[in-house]
Amino acid sequence: MEAKMVALKSGRMKWVPEMNSEEFMEMSESYEGFCIICGETASGVEPDANEYICEGCGQPGVYGYEELMLMGDVELTD
Ligand SMILES: [Zn+2]
Questions:
Q1: Looking at the 3D structure of the chain, how many domains does it have?
Q2: Which of 5, 15, 58, 65 is deepest in the core (most CB within 10 A)?
């Protein structure tokens, strides 16, 4: 999985994971999460989790993949 940094209208930056739909299903089913603040993946995260504290950066930036998809924050490559 790749991730890219995008600029928000507010001028802040966030990370967006890039993956195909198969990878998306795998990540979601294996309770993987993603931190939009630092781009790290997290484990043991419910698919609909939002704003969990990230072990990497200590900020509430971790979201489950289904939640990211709902927010339009997953870039599907297929
Ligand atoms: Zn983080």
A1: 1
A2: 65
